Amino acid sequence: MNIMTEAGVEQKLSSGTNAPSIKMKGEKVSVHYGEKRALFDVDIDVRENQVTALIGPSGCGKSTFLRCLNRMNDTIDIARVSGKITLDGEDVYDPKIDVVELRARVGMVFQKPNPFPKSIYENVAYGPRIHGLARSKAELDGIVESSLKKAGLFNEVKDRLLESGTGLSGGQQQRLCIARAIAVSPEVILMDEPCSALDPIATARVEELIDELRQNYTIVIVTHSMQQAARVSQRTAMFHLGYLVEEGATDKMFTNPDDKRTQDYITGRFG
Amino acid sequence: MGEHTVASFDEELEHIDRLIRDMDELAAAMVAASIRALLASDNAMAQRVVSDDAIMDARQRELDDSAITLIAKRQPMAQDLRAVVGAIRMAGDLERIGDLAKNIAKRVSAVGQSATPRNLSHGIDTMADLVLVQLRGVVEHYVSRNAGALKELRADDQKIDVKYTAVFRELLTYMMEDPRNITACTHLLFCAKNLERIGDHVTNIAENAYYVVTGQQLPADRPKLDETTMSAPAT
């Protein structure tokens, strides 16, 4: 797998392209679930066309933070988000923002593959259809095909597009969910432990895919696998007890982190 | 540093560290014995150094196996990863030091055969003392995670280089004085060169140890005072 190193990023700089710009920005983001505070003043930048990995022990707030980015926490009644999160400089918690449109721009892939109990085709076509992205059947077919291709699934399913999505293997289902997320042309894709229910080969496929998707999308991934974070991401953010402990270049985080808690966590000394 | 959640992980890392300490002790014993054998023309002692090298090789293979298995089983990160990779590299240097000591030991009989005045090798004796201080110190500082001492120790290698230059010049004069000294002096020159190389390996170990301890690389430029390459054509 081709992991872009800091050196690689610098190369891009010297060849005249700008440094990766900030796609999403969190400022003093806090979350309360009822009385309980789950996240404390998190400041974080999500860089465009990079993979940002969120790591930390269970209950550290990483998934909570991820779910703030496309307002998935809105679906939980007792959750209250404060602070500011912007997408291209625009406040995503602005009352004028259309949440449905926001979630099309900031897509999400979950821990367990959750295809709709419909055909493979319908799973991918559903989003573009309700968002009115296709004006004709032919155009919709085109979106479905290109999304499945981008998700690396097309060749495996092209002869059975009308069969049920739930009949696929776990790894294929997860790639179907990625295709479904891609179909509405998002700018950011959030992934919440996308490989935790997959075997090593399916995991490798998804990781390879993440690396390819990075060319066109900005990705934020929550993972419990340290090796996965080290392999797929360019930036890593470490959470602990609701605080952002440390954020930095992945290469450094996994060879020589600054914070003792990061060191203890990634070397298996707690958590 | 706290302990790992999985206790056997700590034991495996400790085992690798212990092998490094063993190899260092063995290396120092081999160097000391090879020089004593050289100075006393003690062929039996020289022979023991030669056979000790097999033990050194076995230790290195054991360390390599342990390190590879640990990486495969534990996927170490951060300082653990640095410790394992560092150990593999330090073991490589220690094994080479063993080879160089063996090479000195092998020359004992050749030097002994030519009736050479004992005082030819005085410089080598003091040079060996310097090398042994470095060799014993480097792993001691590594074990105590003393980055500052490692940095100083690395700089101290220039003392060995200075001494080597002096020995080189000295041996050259003996050869010019009396051509019958040439065989013995050439062997002694190789022995001195071996000691100087051992110093360089100790420097490598210090650099690796420093990286393991701090996560930072020492700057590449280090004072070099081996002038023999410059002065050789002039003499």
From TrEMBL, chain A:
<comment type="similarity">
    <text>Belongs to the ABC transporter superfamily.</text>
</comment>
<dbReference type="GO" id="GO:0016887">
    <property type="term" value="F:ATP hydrolysis activity"/>
</dbReference>
<dbReference type="InterPro" id="IPR027417">
    <property type="entry name" value="P-loop_NTPase"/>
</dbReference>
<feature type="region of interest" description="Disordered">
    <location>
        <begin position="1"/>
        <end position="21"/>
    </location>
</feature>
<keyword id="KW-0813">Transport</keyword>
<dbReference type="InterPro" id="IPR017871">
    <property type="entry name" value="ABC_transporter-like_CS"/>
</dbReference>
<dbReference type="Pfam" id="PF00005">
    <property type="entry name" value="ABC_tran"/>
</dbReference>
<feature type="domain" description="ABC transporter">
    <location>
        <begin position="24"/>
        <end position="266"/>
    </location>
</feature>
<dbReference type="GO" id="GO:0016020">
    <property type="term" value="C:membrane"/>
</dbReference>
<dbReference type="InterPro" id="IPR003593">
    <property type="entry name" value="AAA+_ATPase"/>
</dbReference>
<keyword id="KW-0592">Phosphate transport</keyword>
<keyword id="KW-0067">ATP-binding</keyword>
<protein>
    <submittedName>
        <fullName>High-affinity phosphate transport protein (ABC superfamily, atp_bind)</fullName>
    </submittedName>
</protein>
<keyword id="KW-0547">Nucleotide-binding</keyword>
<dbReference type="InterPro" id="IPR003439">
    <property type="entry name" value="ABC_transporter-like_ATP-bd"/>
</dbReference>
<dbReference type="GO" id="GO:0005315">
    <property type="term" value="F:phosphate transmembrane transporter activity"/>
</dbReference>
<dbReference type="GO" id="GO:0005524">
    <property type="term" value="F:ATP binding"/>
</dbReference>
<dbReference type="GO" id="GO:0035435">
    <property type="term" value="P:phosphate ion transmembrane transport"/>
</dbReference>
<dbReference type="InterPro" id="IPR005670">
    <property type="entry name" value="PstB-like"/>
</dbReference>
Automatic annotation (TrEMBL), chain B:
<dbReference type="Pfam" id="PF01895">
    <property type="entry name" value="PhoU"/>
</dbReference>
<dbReference type="GO" id="GO:0005737">
    <property type="term" value="C:cytoplasm"/>
</dbReference>
<feature type="domain" description="PhoU">
    <location>
        <begin position="124"/>
        <end position="208"/>
    </location>
</feature>
<dbReference type="GO" id="GO:0006817">
    <property type="term" value="P:phosphate ion transport"/>
</dbReference>
<keyword id="KW-0813">Transport</keyword>
<feature type="domain" description="PhoU">
    <location>
        <begin position="20"/>
        <end position="108"/>
    </location>
</feature>
<dbReference type="GO" id="GO:0030643">
    <property type="term" value="P:intracellular phosphate ion homeostasis"/>
</dbReference>
<protein>
    <recommendedName>
        <fullName>Phosphate-specific transport system accessory protein PhoU</fullName>
    </recommendedName>
</protein>
<dbReference type="InterPro" id="IPR026022">
    <property type="entry name" value="PhoU_dom"/>
</dbReference>
<comment type="similarity">
    <text>Belongs to the PhoU family.</text>
</comment>
<keyword id="KW-0592">Phosphate transport</keyword>
<comment type="subunit">
    <text>Homodimer.</text>
</comment>
<keyword id="KW-0963">Cytoplasm</keyword>
<dbReference type="InterPro" id="IPR028366">
    <property type="entry name" value="PhoU"/>
</dbReference>
<dbReference type="GO" id="GO:0045936">
    <property type="term" value="P:negative regulation of phosphate metabolic process"/>
</dbReference>
<comment type="function">
    <text>Plays a role in the regulation of phosphate uptake.</text>
</comment>
<dbReference type="InterPro" id="IPR038078">
    <property type="entry name" value="PhoU-like_sf"/>
</dbReference>
